[in-house]
Amino acid sequence: MDAHGNTTRKGLLVLNCALLALGSCGSPLLMRLYFIHGGKRVWFCSFLETAGFPILLLPITVNYLLRRITPPAPSTATKVISIRWPLFTASAVIGVLIGLDDYLYAYGVARLPVSTSSLLIATQLAFTAGFAFLLVRQRFTSYSTNAIFLLSIGAVVLSLHSSSDRPDNESNREYVLGFVMTLGAAALYGFSLPLVELTYKKAKQVISYSVVMEIQVVISLFATGFCAVGMLVNDDFKAIPREAKEYELGEARYYVVVVWIAIITQFFFLGAIGVIFCASSLLSGIIIAVLLPVTEVLAVIFFHEKFQSEKGVALALSLWGFVSYFYGEIKHSKKVETPENEMPQTPIP
Fold first, then answer.
1. FRET partner for 109 with CA separation of 20 to 30 A, picked from 102, 120, 238, 347?
2. Are 109 and 32 in contact, with CB atoms under 8 Å apart?
3. Average of pLDDT values for 281-286?
């Protein structure tokens, strides 16, 4: 790849890291805001996590118009939709998995403080690493293995006295179920990230960033459809107007909160698969996990959540794991200019 293309790819990586950071920190806080002030519809909140995908139609349209102005070859017809059926089908399957993951995550956020759920979600790095090894032959070093071990120990420490963090109006059964659901969400998303990377590698077409956005639309469409079925079964559509009127912050703010949940969470999902496109699924998982301290601090500031010693130990172990991983990556990059697991360079448009 030429210098211009390499610079563009690095710019895309920075952009997607920013989107991922905004979504990772903002989404759990907004979802918790929905629940603590009177929101009770878990399926509806799951639906919102991917319902913001129509906002991607704007950059996709702009990209199409630019490709029409400057086509790759004079005789080449510019297609409105670049994604082909095999890739569409794979994206649809991933979308259903993401829809299930949305429900597990929303249930956990509804039952657990943000600081607790964020620490549990950090374990997705271990799952991502394991599935990345199985699906895309991700290489491991002693540093990445140490990071995975420390994150796992941190989750165990957090679970030892988890009942002391239980909200006053919640039964122990609901809290434990929220704990288990959140771990399930971490495991499933840890599987989904390498699955996306495998889809990129096995696709029988060129994967450009415009195709990445189309993949995200398909994933979100099917995930949203999955959650919409759950909403229909649970009669959530009928309950939304009533819930809005009874919302503690007011009806208008209720709709502001749910709209921003949809937008911010879409940033998260696009950022995650964008980082996979520019680098790898493991890096995407690392970025999600490394933002944990930021989410922790914001939860304590905005929601005045408790921060017991167990959380402090788990947080320290997590940070230790992150430092270990990045130190290993920096050390390895000095020895090898092109990592073995780097994805093939593909067109940016």
1. 238
2. yes
3. 85
